[in-house]
Structure prediction request, 131 residues.
Amino acid sequence: MGLAARAARRRVLPSLALLALLATLPAAAQTPDKGERLAIRCRTCHEFAADKPHKVGPNLHGLFGRKAGQEPDFHYSKALPASGIVWDDATLDAWLTRPATLVPGTTMAFPGMPDKADRDALIAWLHQATR
Prediction:
């Protein structure tokens, strides 16, 4: 291999390595704006900041690791606290897919989000927004 070919390879290989690394990142990490756009639907009923009052739905600040239906000063259906759910990525994914399937008897009016990529983007955004 000639000097010119080796020099070209030295210039191209780092770029290819970076592209390969970026391709391994989760899709949700690459699209935080998508999660924020999807959350517009959630904002109709929910707040995310600690100092905000409940709306039609409970404030979601501190959501991850919290037991479902336990937010003080919010009236839940009997079904949600009785579900025993603790919110994490897997339970939120199931909930966002179709709340009434995960918790029959829930009063949440949201019909569900069928697209897995949308749910992943929203959950990634919720990790940031509910801290």
User: Anything to note?
Assistant: The chain has a mean pLDDT of 85.
